[in-house]
Amino acid sequence: MKYQIRKVSRVSKVSSVARAFLVSLVILMVLFSTTTVSAQEGEPDSTKSTYTLSYPGLLPDHPLYFLKAGRDRMMSIFISKPLEKAEFNLLQADKRVEASFMLSEKKENKLDLSQSTFSKAENYFEAAINQTMAAKTQGINTSEVSKKLKDANKKHQQILKDITNKLKGKDKNKFAVEHGRLRDFEKRVKEVNR
Q1: How far is 133 from 125, CA to CA, in rounded Å?
Q2: How far apart are CA 102 and CA 117, in angstroms?
């Protein structure tokens, strides 16, 4: 009789470990899932972009953000085709622009982190432009990605304007470099679209 009792307790230990593993897996999947949301609420203005940014998931101020950033770097390593890498970099840029906007909306003072996140977003955007140009020189049709870059640049400019319109004085100057970069990127995107 003792043998049967021990056997049952081992099964219950295994099932509780399996249950804990499954719950952890589901939580991680929810944390790292990607959905698309619009950065602005309300009806679209005719001057505003209808391009939607991807939901960033964890924000850079989250303690587990380093896991997400590491995952994204690992994924980038395994993408070898220039057009696919351009789309991946554009996705990362969009996520970070949205994260920058969300950080600027927080009640705590996250302006420096918001500016840093926006700058990193534009680094990804520049990489997307470079990869698209590389694909075009290889004779690959880049028209779809080029259109996305054009629409994304317009949306990034709109978000930056929304962020800076809420700021005053020295805080507005923190984003001055990003305004210039976005104007330069707009010219480069036009070159890609030719």
Answers
A1: 12
A2: 11
Amino acid at 35: T
Cβ neighbourhood burial of 112 (10 Å; 0-12, 13-18, 19+)? exposed
Q: Is 179 buried (19+), middle (13-18) or exposed (0-12) by CB count in 10 A?
A: middle
What gap in Å lies between CA 136 and CA 192, rounded to an integer?
8
Residues 178, 156: Cα–Cα separation, whole Å: 10
Are 160 and 118 within 8 A, CB to CB? yes
Each as own residue / partner, the long-range contacts of residues 119-122 (CB below 8 Å, 24 or more positions apart, any chain) are 119/177, 119/178, 120/96, 121/92, 121/93, 121/94, 121/95, 121/96, 121/97, 121/156, 122/93, 122/156, 122/178, 122/181, 122/182, 122/185
CA distance 129 to 119: 15
41: left (phi over 0), alpha (psi -120 to 50) or beta: beta
Torsion of CA 96, 125, 68, 104, to 10 degrees: -10
**pLDDT averaged per 10 residues, the chain (length 194):** 52 61 59 46 55 93 95 94 95 96 87 93 96 93 94 94 87 85 90 82
**Partners of residue 54 on adjacent β-strands:** 36
- Model confidence, pTM: 0.74
Other residues' Cβ atoms within 10 Å of the Cβ of residue 27: 10
d(CA 57, CA 70): 14
